[in-house]
Amino acid sequence: MAATADRLRPVVTFAGQGIRFDQDSAETPPLLSRMLSYPIGIIHHQLSRRLGAGKPQPPRRQQSFSRDFGHAAAETVLVTRLSFTLLRSLGVGYRWIVRLTALAVYAILLMPGFLQVMYDYFFSSQIRRNIIYGNQPRNCLDLYLPTNTDEKKPVVIFVSGGAWIIGNKAWGALLGMQLAERDVIVASIDYRNFPQGTISDMVTDVSQGISFVCKNIADYGGDPDRIFLMGQSAGAHISVCALLEQAIKEAGKGESVDWSVSQMKAYFGLSGGYNLSKLVEHFDSRGLYRSLFLSIMEGEESLAQFSPEIRIQDPSIRDAVSSLPPFVLFHGTGDYSIPSDASVTFVETLRKVGAQANLFLYEGKTHTDLFLQDPFRGGSYELFDQLVAILHAGDEEALAKDSMAPPKPRLVPEILIGLARMVSPF
Prior knowledge:
Blueprint: H1 2-7, E1 11-15, E2 18-21, H2 31-37, H3 65-90, H4 94-109, H5 111-123, E3 127-132, E4 140-144, E5 153-159, H6 173-181, E6 185-189, H7 199-216, E7 222-232, H8 234-251, E8 264-270, H9 276-285, H10 290-296, H11 308-311, H12 318-322, E9 327-332, H13 341-352, E10 357-363, H14 369-377, H15 382-391, H16 396-403, H17 414-423
Parallel strand pairs: 1-10, 5-6, 5-7, 7-8, 8-9, 9-10
Antiparallel strand pairs: 1-2, 3-4, 4-6
Helix pairs in contact: 4-17, 7-8
Transmembrane segments: 96-119
GO molecular function: hydrolase activity
Protein name: protein-S-isoprenylcysteine alpha-carbonyl methylesterase
């Protein structure tokens, strides 16, 4: 891994509490300075919602508990029905019984943290839940809003993971609430999962959600000139596919587009997989069986189409690749769900085709450490601090405020986190 990291300078490697920054090479400008100078061409749209009258909707107040309860009940019925369909595809074998049992134990051990996050998710006045962005099932998003509304805020559009099967916008609740405390607006997008939809449906949903945020986020106090796209695990894959598809449409010069890649100041990919052809057998060995995975991805012949690492090497879309925003990838070297090499090779490929890309490796961190266990520990953790530093780059006042922010509270005792890490099926 050290040899690989050297080939990808600049790389930041985190080992426990210590941090090592590799210096930028002379021909590669530092990440933050490059991002600050990166040209952003914002395309201004008429603020309209294609739902009902089509006029801009003012920020809505918190929905009533009864409405949320009704929505949750409808979602439960839908998820239950789809679960039976999914189980018929998976079959009920020994491997899945073991993994489902491990998942249940994992969730129970981390339940103190989940309960606190769920309470805030349903009762916080700073969260706008279930804002509809499209006409398909699950076409809705959650907004996490800062309490300080004095000036326009940076915006993160977040796409959650879930193996393309169990993704949910609520998975981004903890990150959304923590970033909102640092004066960042987070829009967590829901999308159809398999078997309700396949990969092209998921990409379409996410692209439509991005479009809605770009058009309407100013109404909620967001800065249209500081929008960042972020995906985690399967969400990292889906969001990159949406970004690349949009770039290809724009480069075609003939297709109308609802949003532009130039509106994305940067892309953040957390623990993602970007070359499906290399991951099919790995997923099969971990229980996401080949036949099921190929069904999600619409057949083996579609793997290259939905593999960003492969597509960006196509000379025919060179103009599209050149329009992509800077990429910043995060990955733990102890990730067994999606090996960190997936991010390493994607960064290498992005740089070969002339795109801006940086990689942050976290020594020994697993697939869920960066997203769940570390935040549940409270205090400060490297991924969050690095993310906030990039989001607030160039804003001295915000950076000073970040440096004085109180430590985040611990949500789960360390002994439970350690046990959960041992039984984690991820």
